[in-house]
Design brief:
By secondary structure, the protein is an alpha/beta fold. It is built from ten helices and eight strands. An eight-stranded mixed β-sheet has the order 1-2-4-3-5-6-7-8, sandwiched between helices. The two termini are 28 Å apart.
């Protein structure tokens, strides 16, 4: 996945209780590497779904590399990080994200995260508020908010059938046509914004050994929860961005979640003509908004 990183970014590794997490940060010119550790940390966390990885934020974080120590990990089970063979649960991600922050950040961190991962960050910030300074969240959703299952699209009996789950993953995530169709049909508002590089980055991540285990846990709904049961407890200052054309997680859902905690959630910004990944679809808009609020 390193070949998909912007100029000046390389990878480093830390070890968590579930294995190695690979993360991307400034390692070469044009960034002043000697000063990086003195810069405040800015952590970018990617969404879930077949082929997900830190690449998702790679069009945004170079804009902040002069003023922040950029940290963009591949989460456990995704990208180039460890892919333990297991039935992934919510606690796996709450634990390993916290371990990552503790090992890489010497001070409370500002987090930029999307979708289900953003919802995990909300739960972490409630339980360990000392780790966080501010949150910038794109379409945060537990995918079962207010009891409305948003993401499950295949019967559980099909996903849990031995060999058939392999077939589903190969058919849905490990070939170029399926990946392009997934990006164009479900994640982006405008299909022409999907580039060949994006397709190749998602395909490369999906083809990592044992990548199916985290992807199928997501598809089965093992990682879903009702974010509305937690969000009112959030105290960390938060800004939410939401693509107006996001599928699965409608913008009305986002406004309802945001309105349930106006003390912590300081701004809710709709992004016109964008789907669930505006930071990949219209990165210049997200860069501008982050610069405004940071």
């Amino acid at each position: 996945m390193l070949k998909f990183q912007p100029p000046g970014f390389g990878h480093k590794v830390i070890y968590t209780s579930l294995g190695a997490i690979v993360y991307y940060t400034q390692t070469n010119a044009p960034w002043a590497i000697a000063d990086t550790k003195n810069l405040p940390p800015l952590l970018f966390l990617h969404n879930f779904g077949g082929g997900a990885s830190a690449y998702e934020w790679s069009k945004v974080y170079p804009a902040f590399a002069s003023n922040y120590q950029i940290l963009a990990p591949d989460l456990i089970g995704w990208g180039e990080s460890a892919h333990p063979v297991r039935d992934y649960q919510i606690r796996d991600y709450l634990t390993t994200i916290a371990e990552f922050i503790i090992q890489t950040c010497q001070q409370p961190v500002t987090v930029v995260a999307s979708s289900l991962t953003a919802a995990f960050v909300i739960r972490l910030a409630i339980n360990q508020p000392n780790l966080f300074q501010r949150l910038f969240l794109v379409s945060p959703s537990g995918f079962d908010d207010y009891g409305q299952g948003a993401g499950r699209r295949l019967p559980l009996s099909v996903i849990n059938t031995p060999l058939l789950d392999d077939f589903i993953y190969i058919l849905g995530a490990k070939n170029e046509i399926a990946v392009r169709n997934f990006l164009q049909g479900f994640l982006f508002a405008k299909s022409q914004r999907v580039s060949q590089e994006m397709v190749e980055a998602y395909l490369t991540s999906a083809q990592q050994p044992n990548a199916k285990f985290a992807a199928l846990a997501f598809l089965r709904g093992d990682l879903y929860f009702d974010l509305s049961l937690y969000i009112q407890q959030l105290t960390t200052p938060t800004v939410i961005f939401w693509g107006e054309k996001a599928q699965f997680t409608n913008i009305k859902l986002g406004q309802r979640l945001a309105n349930s905690n106006k003390n912590a959630i300081q701004h809710f910004q709709a992004i016109a003509d964008a789907g669930i990944l505006p930071h990949l679809e219209v990165p210049e808009i997200i860069i501008g908004l982050l610069q405004r609020y940071l």
